[in-house]
Amino acid sequence: QGVKAPIRGVELKPNDIPGDRLAESSVTTFHIARGALSSLEVIQVFDDTGASTTEYESYVDIPGFAHTFTLDSEAVAVIIMRISGFLYDDTEPLDEPQRLKGFYYLNLNGERVRGQALEASHVVGKPDVPGYHRSFWASAVVTHATALSPGIHTVKGQFKVDDTVQNTVVFAYHRELSVIIFKKAEVNIEQE
After folding, report:
1. Alpha-carbon distances of 136 from 6, 79, 180, rounded to whole Å
2. CB atoms < 10 A from the CB of 106, how many?
3. Residues facing 190 on adjacent strands
4. What is the C-alpha to C-alpha distance for residues 31 and 153, in angstroms, rounded to an integer?
5. Backbone phi, psi, residue 128, to 5°
6. Is residue 179 within 8 Å of 40, Cβ to Cβ?
7. Dihedral of CA 57/136/79/47: which sign?
8. How far apart are CA 25 and CA 185, in angstroms?
9. What 3-state DSSP class applies to 46?
10. Less packed terminus of the chain by CB within 10 Å, N or C?
11. Distance CA 5, CA 154 (A)
12. CA dist 16 to 30, 32, 187, 188, Å?
């Protein structure tokens, strides 16, 4: 029989996919069809002030940075968290090099699932320039994909200072959570 030509999503019409192409062992696994992407949910926080923490013993929820959604059936979720991170230390003497380090984590249903550390070594400030403390900016980007059961789910961002550099202050400025939900599409397939 050979290989059959692919069916492009933009060309897909009802009942275009023959039943044999939807078998579990076929190339079209997971019964891909139009409508499989069921929703996209995004929370964006534009924050010029920045939420901050000096906590180094446990993770702290980033204020205003959580999203709750409900699934009526099993789905795969791809969750993307992006944070404009800022870390600083203003301990004296400012011209003495210090290490800055903080952690940003994605929490799903009460469990930290994936995170990113931001770290800079040998950071110095300028003691003769007011407000020029040790600091740096970097983006923390975390991506997590998982199967989720029906029910209520909550994603949120958390952060903390690394316990080996307790003078660091960790900030979260502009940030976003994106949840892309993929469900099996319910398709009527006529067997040939």
Report:
1. 48, 26, 31
2. 23
3. none
4. 25
5. -90, 0
6. yes
7. positive
8. 18
9. coil
10. N
11. 41
12. 16, 12, 10, 10
d(CA 167, CA 56) in angstroms, rounded, equals 9
CA distances from 176 to 13, 41, 59, 63, 159 (A): 35, 11, 18, 12, 14
- Angle, CA of 162, 153 and 108, to the nearest 5°: 20
Encoded tokens for 44:
């964006």
Spatial separation of the C-alpha atoms in residues 169 and 182, rounded to whole Å: 38
Please tell me the total number of residues recorded for the chain in this structure. 192
* C-alpha to C-alpha distance for 84 and 57, rounded to whole angstroms: 22
Q: Which tens digit of pLDDT belongs to each residue from 29-88? A: 444 444 455 666 676 777 777 899 999 999 999 998 999 989 888 889 999 999 999 998
CA 93 to chain centre: 37
* Cβ-based neighbour number of residue 116 at 10 Å: 17
Q: Which residue has the tokens 């400012």?
A: 94
